[in-house]
C-alpha cells in the first residue's frame, strides 16, 4: 500500500510515495513485479548484446569497402560510396539503440544452479568414487557364533536356596559377554593375558590413511575405533550371540577373532567360578551356625550331668520317687504301731515316747524328700533348689535342653546336606562357553563395495543439494 505525499520546498512540488506493509496479496504482487523486472533486465541484456554484435559487423563491412574504393572506376566508386554510407547509417542506428543501454552491464552469466550442482554433487561424488576405487583398503570379515550354556535350574532350590543364586542366569551372562566384547576391558585383557596389542593390526602400512591409526593411540580412543570394527548381536530367543570382526588382512582378522573368543571364554569361566564359590561359602556359613548352636546345647547338657553326677537325668526322678514312697510306708507303719501301743500303755511310757520320736523323724525325712521333688503347685521357674537338689527344676531344665538339642540337630543335618550339595555342584561347571561356529580365515574381502558405496554417496550428495535448492528458492520467493 502506497500513499502519495506532497512536499513543498523551494523547488516545484514533488509527489513522493510512502510505503507501508501491505496485505498478503499486495506482497505477492510486489514479488511478481520484481520477478518481471529481473526477466526484463535479462531480455534487455540479450538485446544489447545482439545490437553490439550487429554494430561490430557493420563497422567491419565498412572498413572492407574503404580499401578498394581508390582503385575502382568512377561508376563503381559511386556504388561503393553508397554502400559505405548505408553501413555507416546502420552503425549509427545501432549506436543510437545501444546508447540508452550503455549504463547497463552486459555479462555472460553462469547459472548458480549448475555451479552448486557441480560443487555439491559431482565433485564430492567423484572424490568418493576415486577413494573407493584407488585408495580404500580391502576389508575382511570373520563371523563367529557362541552361546553361554548351563543347567536351567540349580539343585539348591530343593533346600530353599535358589533365591540366593538365581535359577536362570545364561541370558544375563550372554548380555555380559556381548558388552564385554566391545569394552575397554577386553582390549586390556587381550594385551595382559595373551600378550597381543590389537592396535598393531590397524596401524600397518597396508591400511589406507582414512582407517590407519597410530600404534601408540590411547586405549580410550582406540575403544571407539574398536567398536566401529566389531559388531555384536544377541538373539534372546535362541540365546546365541553373533560376532563380526573386521580387519584389513585375512590372517589378522582370524587372529583377532581367536583372541576375542579366548578372553571371552575365560570371562565366563571366572563368572562361573565366582558363583560356585559364593554357593559354597553361603552353605558353609549355614553349617557353621548350626554347628555352633548344637555345640552350645550339648555343652549345657554336659554341664548338667556333671553337676548332678549322673549319666541319665531321667533316673533321678524314679529314684527320688521310690525313696519318697519308702518313707511314707515307714511313717505309716510307725503310726500304726503307736496306735496299737497306746491301747495297752499310757502315752508317757518310754516305748510310747520312743515311737513318737521315730514318727517325728520319719515325718521330717518325708518332708525333706518332698522338698527335693518340688511342689507340683508351683511353677518350675520359681522353684527353689535350697541346700539339696530340686528334682523338678533339674528335670525341667533337662527337658528344655533336650528339645533345643533336637531342633539344633535337625538344623545341622539340613545345613550339612546343603553343604554337601554345594560341594557337588562346585565339582561341575554350571555355565560354560560354547562356540558352535568357529572363526575361519576369509578368502576374499567383502568391503568396500566400490560401485555401491559410490552410488550411495552420489545419492546422499544429491539429496543434500536438492534440499539446499529447495530452501534457497523458498527463502528467495518469500523475501519482501
Structure, explained:
The chain is rod-shaped. The protein has 12 helices and 6 strands. The longest helix has 59 residues, at 250-308. Strands 4-5-3-6 form a 4-stranded antiparallel beta sheet. The protein has helices at 24-66, 74-98, 112-135, 162-165, 170-181, 184-193, 219-228, 250-308, 314-342, 350-373, 391-426, 450-477; strands spanning 2-7, 14-19, 140-150, 230-235, 240-247, 431-437. Mean pLDDT is 75; it is low at 1-18, 67-74, 101-108, 152-168 and 375-388.
Produce the secondary structure layout.
Elements: E1 2-7, E2 14-19, H1 24-66, H2 74-98, H3 112-135, E3 140-150, H4 162-165, H5 170-181, H6 184-193, H7 219-228, E4 230-235, E5 240-247, H8 250-308, H9 314-342, H10 350-373, H11 391-426, E6 431-437, H12 450-477
Antiparallel strand pairs: 1-2, 3-5, 3-6, 4-5
Helix pairs in contact: 1-2, 3-12, 5-8, 6-8, 8-11, 9-10
Please state the CA-atom Rg, rounded to the nearest Å.
Answer: 59 Å
Query: Any idea what the shape is?
Result: rod-shaped
**What number of domains?**
3
Q: What is the H/E string?
A: EEHHHEHHHHEEHHHHEH
Task: Report the strand count.
Answer: 6
Low-pLDDT regions: 1-18, 67-74, 101-108, 152-168, 375-388
- How much helix is in the residues? 55-70%
Q: Whole-number average pLDDT? A: 75
- Order of strands across the main sheet: 4-5-3-6
What fraction of the residues are assigned to beta strands by DSSP? 5-15%
Task: Report how far apart the termini are.
Answer: 13 Å
Separate helix tally: 12
Largest sheet: 4 strands, antiparallel
The class by helix and strand makeup works out as alpha+beta
Amino acid at each position: 500500500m502506497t500513499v502519495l505525499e506532497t512536499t513543498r520546498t523551494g523547488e516545484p512540488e514533488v509527489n513522493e510515495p510512502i510505503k507501508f506493509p501491505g496485505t498478503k496479496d499486495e506482497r505477492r504482487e510486489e514479488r511478481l513485479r520484481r520477478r518481471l523486472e529481473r526477466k526484463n533486465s535479462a531480455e534487455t541484456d540479450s538485446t544489447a548484446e545482439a545490437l553490439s554484435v550487429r554494430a561490430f559487423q557493420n563497422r567491419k563491412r565498412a572498413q572492407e569497402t574503404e580499401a578498394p574504393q581508390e582503385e575502382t572506376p568512377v561508376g563503381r566508386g559511386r556504388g561503393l560510396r553508397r554502400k559505405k554510407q548505408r553501413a555507416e547509417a546502420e552503425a549509427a542506428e545501432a549506436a543510437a539503440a545501444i546508447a540508452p543501454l550503455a549504463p547497463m552491464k552486459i555479462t555472460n552469466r553462469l547459472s548458480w544452479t549448475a555451479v552448486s550442482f557441480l560443487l555439491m554433487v559431482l565433485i564430492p561424488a567423484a572424490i568418493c568414487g576415486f577413494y573407493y576405487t584407488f585408495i580404500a583398503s580391502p576389508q575382511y570379515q570373520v563371523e563367529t557364533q557362541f552361546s553361554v550354556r548351563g543347567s536351567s535350574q540349580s539343585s539348591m532350590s530343593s533346600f530353599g536356596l535358589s533365591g540366593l543364586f538365581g535359577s536362570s542366569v545364561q541370558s544375563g551372562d550372554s548380555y555380559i559377554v556381548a558388552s564385554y566384547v566391545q569394552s575397554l576391558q577386553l582390549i586390556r585383557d587381550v594385551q595382559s593375558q595373551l600378550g597381543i596389542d590389537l592396535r598393531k593390526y590397524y596401524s600397518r602400512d597396508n591400511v589406507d590413511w582414512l582407517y590407519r591409526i597410530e600404534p601408540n593411540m590411547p586405549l580410550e580412543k582406540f575403544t571407539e575405533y574398536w567398536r566401529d570394527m566389531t559388531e555384536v548381536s544377541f538373539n534372546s530367543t535362541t540365546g546365541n550371540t553373533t560376532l563380526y570382526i573386521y580387519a584389513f588382512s585375512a590372517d589378522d582378522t582370524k587372529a583377532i577373532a581367536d583372541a576375542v573368543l579366548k578372553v571371552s571364554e575365560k570371562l565366563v569361566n571366572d563368572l562361573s567360578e565366582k558363583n560356585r564359590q559364593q554357593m559354597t561359602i553361603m552353605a558353609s556359613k549355614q553349617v557353621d551356625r548350626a554347628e555352633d548352636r548344637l555345640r552350645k546345647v550339648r555343652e549345657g547338657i554336659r554341664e548338667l550331668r556333671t553337676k548332678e553326677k549322673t549319666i541319665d537325668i531321667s533316673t533321678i526322678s524314679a529314684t527320688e520317687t521310690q525313696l519318697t514312697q519308702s518313707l511314707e510306708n515307714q511313717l505309716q507303719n510307725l503310726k500304726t504301731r503307736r496306735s496299737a501301743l497306746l491301747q495297752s500303755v499310757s502315752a508317757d511310757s518310754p516305748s510310747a515316747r520312743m515311737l513318737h520320736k521315730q514318727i517325728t523323724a520319719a515325718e521330717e525325712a518325708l518332708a525333706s524328700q518332698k522338698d527335693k521333688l518340688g511342689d507340683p503347685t508351683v511353677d518350675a521357674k520359681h522353684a527353689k533348689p535350697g541346700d539339696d537338689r530340686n528334682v523338678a527344676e533339674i528335670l525341667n531344665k533337662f527337658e528344655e535342653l533336650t528339645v533345643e538339642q533336637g531342633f539344633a540337630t535337625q538344623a545341622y543335618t539340613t545345613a550339612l546336606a546343603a553343604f554337601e550339595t554345594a560341594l557337588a555342584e562346585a565339582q561341575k561347571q554350571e555355565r560354560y562357553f560354547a562356540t558352535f561356529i568357529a572363526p575361519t580365515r576369509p578368502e576374499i574381502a567383502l568391503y568396500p563395495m566400490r560401485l555401491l558405496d559410490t552410488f550411495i554417496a552420489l545419492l546422499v550428495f544429491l539429496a543434500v543439494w536438492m534440499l539446499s535448492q529447495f530452501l534457497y528458492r523458498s527463502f528467495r520467493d518469500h523475501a519482501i
